[in-house]
Write a structure and sequence with these properties.
By secondary structure, the chain is mostly helical. Helix content is 78%, strand content 0%. The two termini are 23 Å apart.
Length: 124
């Protein structure tokens, strides 16, 4: 008889469950806020702070499926910025926004990974 593992309950639950759908809505709302902060900020600190905190929360909310939420947030940020925002006339402001955008996308993946590891470590 095989020992019962706590990971076996994750294998039986469907990928798209109510919890993931609720967390997806939260990530989409947070992504819209982050996109607003990227457009509004005059420095990189606020977008990076918000991206790092929200990504760690993604990892904590979904330690096993956080990768899906991170990809969703990154895609929302890039698509939202590229197709639904106006490009600033000032070249320096445009470069700052791009730096904030791509840095936030990187922090989304890094933070969700670290948040998931921390959640699994605390859960044991």
């Amino acid at each position: 008889m095989m020992p019962h593992s706590s990971d076996s309950s994750y294998a039986r639950e469907p990928f798209f469950n109510t919890r993931l759908i609720i967390n997806t809505l939260l990530v989409l709302a947070n992504s819209a806020l982050l996109l607003f902060v990227i457009k509004w900020a005059d420095v990189v600190h606020w977008p990076y702070f918000l991206a790092a905190v929200s990504a760690a929360i993604i990892g904590f909310l979904e330690p096993r499926k956080g990768w899906f939420l991170a990809v969703l947030q990154a895609a929302f940020l890039w698509i939202g910025y590229t197709f639904f925002t106006a490009t600033p006339d000032n070249g320096g402001k445009h470069e700052l926004e791009l730096f904030c955008l791509y840095g936030s996308i990187f922090l989304t993946f890094l933070g969700s990974f670290v948040g998931g590891i921390l959640k699994r470590a605390v859960g044991k």
